[in-house]
Amino acid sequence: MTFWSVTIPTRTTHGTPGSHMFIVNADRYEDARNHALTQADLPKSRRHRRNAALNIQALAVTELTARWGL
């Protein structure tokens, strides 16, 4: 499996922008995206971002690769 970084932009009720990032272990891009969206919907994740709204249209998924020793 591969590690992926999934970043979801957020916006508070006052209009302040931010982001919520998840590092997930998945075989494919789609699996990483779905896992992060599932995690983002959990109560502990909503508390962490203080109920800021997610902008899933701007979600970004990046494969993490080891760069040391290159």
Structural class by sheet pairing and helices: alpha+beta
The SSE order reads EEHHEE
Mean pLDDT: 94
- SS strand fraction: 35-45%
The best one-word shape is elongated
For the sheet with most strands, the description reads: 4 strands, antiparallel
Number of continuous helical runs: 2
Identify low-pLDDT runs.
none
Radius of gyration: 13 Å
Brief summary of the model shown:
The chain has 2 helices and 4 strands; from the N terminus they run ββααββ.
What does this 3D model show about the protein?
The protein is built from 2 helices and 4 strands, in the order E-E-H-H-E-E. It has 70 residues and is of the alpha+beta class. It has one domain. Strands 1, 2, 3 and 4 form a 4-stranded antiparallel sheet that branches. A hairpin with a 5-residue loop joins strand 1 and strand 2.
Provide keyphrases for this structure.
70 residues; alpha+beta; four-stranded antiparallel sheet; 2 helices; 4 strands; 26% helix; elongated
List the helices and strands and how they pair.
Elements: E1 2-11, E2 17-26, H1 29-40, H2 43-48, E3 53-54, E4 60-63
Antiparallel strand pairs: 1-2, 1-3, 1-4
